[in-house]
Amino acid sequence: MLNLILGNAVTVDGRSCIATNPGVAGHAVYGPYEQREAGKYVVEFPIESRDGQPIERNALCAVLDVTSSGGNVLHARKEIFAADLQNGRANFTLPFQLPKRAALEYRVWVSGALPLVIGDHRRVVQTTGAPITAEALLAQASFPDLDGENLPFFRENRDYFRSLYERDCGVRIEQDAVVLTIQGVSFYARSKDDLNFIGEIFFEHAYNFKSDADWCVIDIGMNIGLSTLLFAGKSEVREVHSFEPFRGTYDRAVANIGLNAPVAAKVQAHNFGLADKDWDGEILINQSSDSGAMTTVGAAVGTPIRISLKDAGGVLGPIIERARAGNLDILVKMDCEGSEFAIFDSLIAADLIRHISGFMVEWHAMFDDKTQDDLIRPLRKAGFVVFDRSPPVGNGFFYAARLREGS
Question: What does the buried/exposed string (b/e) look like for 260-269 if buried means 16 or more CB atoms within 10 Å of the residue's CB?
């Protein structure tokens, strides 16, 4: 956070910064009040001097600190003098240790002796148990210093990747792809399509459920695997069964799952879609649509593509039976571009809804005679409470939790 009483907001090489004014003292940057668990850390502060009159080398220019409890608990402090800034931009590191969980501020106080440019984003890494130095850890976690000539996708979206980086997302280049790591989930970003779900999944937390029970999650409409990996990363989730009918999208999901070795064993990925019957054949898809908008319902015109669909009740019945035998609750996440109505029909016919504990459903307004009420009605009858977030017009979203056994 920038204190604009002390200067002006500026952007330097895509970085959000404050350019402080001479003769004005105070905390130029503060916050972000982020929660950190107990452990050892190091934080990096990017600072450089602006053009100004020469001052004494031993003049105090800034004080860096790490605090909690509204600035009342000091965890680390470092003074910066004019001599430290004589070679241009510098990244100052400050190690600290937390004895218990705390909401932290990484602050820079300026004396006003020298006008400075200070980055708003302060990178933090945990050093407990790390086999390499804190400086090396910070270097690994730094934003890629590339012009993007060999990776146009990175160059064209550099500002967006920088904004993710400043929201504590890891950004690295691996051959011909950008690899992003958000909240412990790593995935390849090769095109705009791969970025479409980041906000919904990681920042709006559309699928971020919490529970003390053990769970089996069924992800219908896996897409590139982000929700699947978010579920698999939860300690309470023991297994994830994911379904994606489009081969290109499925292959991207499998590659992303491979980046997440600690949780990959929890995931069973299937390259077919679910419906109310078994079917193999060609449908037409609009190639201009992003991967998340492709539907097994098919388009009137487009490119032919072969897919396989299986009856949802027949596929999910054995999965649910095994999970219940292992004392796992069942959660179904569904985002399948119109197929949700056929899938619900199949679940009802197979009498499976009463064995499921929760639903997260994005439904699609693709049919004149169907709305979310056609999905919610059987859930209410089965004893679910439903939280409907659907807008008056267009696609919508609802959550459902079963409170009692249905009749």
Answer: beebeebbeb
